Amino acid sequence: MKRVFTLIISLLAFIFATAQQSVSLEGADEIVRLWDNSTAKHSNYQTKDEQFRKGKKTTMQYTSSCELYLFKPKAEKNQGVAVVICPGGAYSSLGFDIPLAKWYASQGVTAALLKYRLPNGYKEAMLEDSTGAVRYLRTRTDLGIDPAKVGISGNSAGGHLAAWTSNIMADEEKPAFAILHYPAIDRTSAYYYKSQPNNTNILGKGFSLAEAEAVSAHNMVGRTTPPTLIMLCDDDTVVPPTSPVAYYEALIQYGVKASMHIYPAGGHSLKKHLTERNSAIVDWLNWLGLIK
Fold first, then answer.
1. Are 223 and 256 in contact (CB under 8 A)?
2. Is there a domain that residue 271 lies in?
3. What pTM, to 2 d.p., does this model score?
């Protein structure tokens, strides 16, 4: 019976996906559509049309397709580095940080804002998108990208996805680096109770504490986790500072190159510390030998 039910859901998802309205971010140098629910291996079974949340052209919800919005550096500044940027939004929407993508491009780094399929209780779809984005950028040698210099970044829920992605890929495929902005790492303990809707978006209704522990990224860290830079504010009331700190502690435990910057004020954002953030990223990539 379960198999029949799954088949019915899959067929319905295919029918809706082929008829769904899709929206794209404006302002990118290039838009690359990787797949949607009808063509990808996994589906998030979203049946609603994609739309901009409350009309805001930089925030999407109900996503059922995967796209990359590329921001390219000038040829004379190109460092051969690329980064996939996973937007945050509590896994219920995607908030695209266009200024960050443009800043990366100004530093000679190809930035790819990732429109991933929000999990809708089916986490495999968004992981297919995030890992697929890293693999895709490695094929774009025409943009001057060195396949060995492709990293991943994200903020809040996107930071959690970036950390997750950097750990689950095969060792030979892992990103060259990870940069996490106030990442929602720990899905358990006090945070587990505060983020029930957030966790339900990933795991579906009725998830167990063991399932939440399994998707807490600090429990995924190993010796082959990529070098990771973490940035957060001490007065963040959305993601407790202990959440990304747990990830940093795991990185140190396994001997992974890591750096963490904790700013005293700024809440669930780095807007008050953009100069410091940018400097930290440049220093980090330079220290790793990825940029000059």
1. yes
2. yes
3. 0.91
Tokens (6 digits) for 19:
């008829």
Is 278 buried (19+), middle (13-18) or exposed (0-12) by CB count in 10 A?
middle
- Phi, psi torsion values for 51, nearest 5 degrees: -155, 160
Categorise residue 144: left if φ over 0, alpha if ψ from -120 to 50, beta otherwise. left
Across 112-135, b (16+ Cβ under 10 Å) vs e yields bbbbbbbbbbbbebbbbbbbbbbe
Segment 222-244, tens digit of pLDDT: 999 999 999 999 999 989 899 99
Q: Which domain holds residue 99?
A: 2-287
Looking at residues 23-38, what average pLDDT do you find?
Answer: 96
Q: Domain count of the chain?
A: 1
Predicted pLDDT of residue 199? 86
182: domain CATH number is 3.40.50.1820
Is residue 97 situated within a structural domain? yes
Q: Is residue 140 part of a domain?
A: yes
Q: Which residue is listed with tokens 């030998």?
A: 289
